[in-house]
Amino acid sequence: MMPIIDCDVHNDWSTAEVLLPYLDPAFRDYFIRGEQPGPPGAFPHAHRPWLHPEDFRRHDIQPKTEDEHYQFMKDHLLDKHNITVGILTGEEALEASTLANRYYATALTRAYNEFMINEWLPRDDRFYASMIIAPQDPEGAAAEIRRLGSHPRIVQVLMSHGSYRPYGDPFYHPIWEACSEMGLPLAIHLGGQGGINYSPIGSGPMTFYWTTHALLCQPAMSHLASSIAHGVFEKWPNMKLIMIECGVAWVPPILWRLDANYKALRKETPWLKRLPSEYARDHVRVTTQPLEQPKNPEWLHSTLEAMDGKNTLMFASDYPHWDFDDPTQLGIPKDWRDNVFWKNALETYTKIKMPASVAAD
């Protein structure tokens, strides 16, 4: 049976109050009282303006406890689809990037990371985890990366793709430096719009959820271009950027445009030594969910080939969101399956230890 590494498994909480035991005492009262009215246990200051009517959950899952959430995940994802490794990516904790108080944001993400280590990783040996950071606090984020970066089951640093600067900007370089030092890839996940972060759509907010969802790839384009142009991969050649749930088919056209403009205007960024597409091939990885679905599958395959998809794509289910991808229905060429379902992730997430029963080539 083919191994599967699922790169996007959301472990939500039953209530944000589970963070209280792990939250710095200086912020506990702030957390409990908040600055804005909301339901008891709501995540303070979180902005989720494009919430799906079913709260992004399949079958309207509303777990009352972490035990219930884990059992449903075990039954409907891990066991049902024979997932070998599930990389936990949190859920509402990513919205910490929307907060104006960067110190509070870092305290919340630190509390979430402790909650995840103590209350999720012990539940299943198949779990590895993402350390969530607050990018608006680069120094605090870097300290958190160094604090937890050596944990054997934390395989990446994760932040939302909502921001008020593109992530290659030198403002964020303390984060890249800490990731490089700890040998962890830096991942961005769709979300984090609202609060201090810009609208995800370049022309301004859209009227409908479905059009917004289709256009949420726009920030990812900016982060990709910025990371390359600011020389992140020249400065930290061991780094990888992972884009989760940002779509896929837009990647080749953006790289074509970046290559063309770099050739004409390369004197703007003399620190770059290679074409943008070459940096992307070696340093950027993209998860499959949501994988575009054209009427003719060959159109998609041609696009994926243009980005060396066999070696740059990694499987993600996006469990338990409404647009979850069933691994048995993934529309990729058959000879790519081993790479996309596990080999590319194993090469990217170097801490993952596959079970002895999995015979690596």
| Rounded Rg | 19 Å
Strand percentage lies at: 5-15%
Mean pLDDT: 90
Which percent range fits the helix content?
Answer: 25-40%
Q: Briefly, what CATH class? A: Alpha Beta
Secondary-structure-based class equals alpha/beta
- CATH topological fold name: TIM Barrel
Q: Segments where pLDDT lies below 50 for 5+ residues? A: 36-60
Major sheet strand order: 1-2-3-4-5-6-7-8
Cα shape: globular
- Span of the ends, CA to CA: 14 Å
Q: Main sheet?
A: 8 strands, parallel
CATH architectural name: Alpha-Beta Barrel
CATH homologous superfamily caption: Metal-dependent hydrolases
Q: What letter string, H or E per element, gives the SSE order?
A: EHHEHEHEHEHHHEHHEHHEH
Domain count, please report it. 1
- DSSP summary: helix tally: 13
Give a count of the beta strands, DSSP E runs of length 2 or more.
Answer: 8
What does this structure look like?
With 361 residues, the protein is α/β, with parallel strands linked by helices. It has one domain: TIM Barrel (Alpha-Beta Barrel), CATH 3.20.20. 37% of the residues lie in helices and 10% in strands. It contains 13 helices and eight strands. An eight-stranded parallel sheet has the order 1-2-3-4-5-6-7-8, sandwiched between helices. Helix 4 links the parallel strand 3 and strand 4. The longest helix is centred in the N-terminal third of the chain and has 18 residues. The radius of gyration is 19 Å and the shape is globular. About 7% of the residues have low confidence.
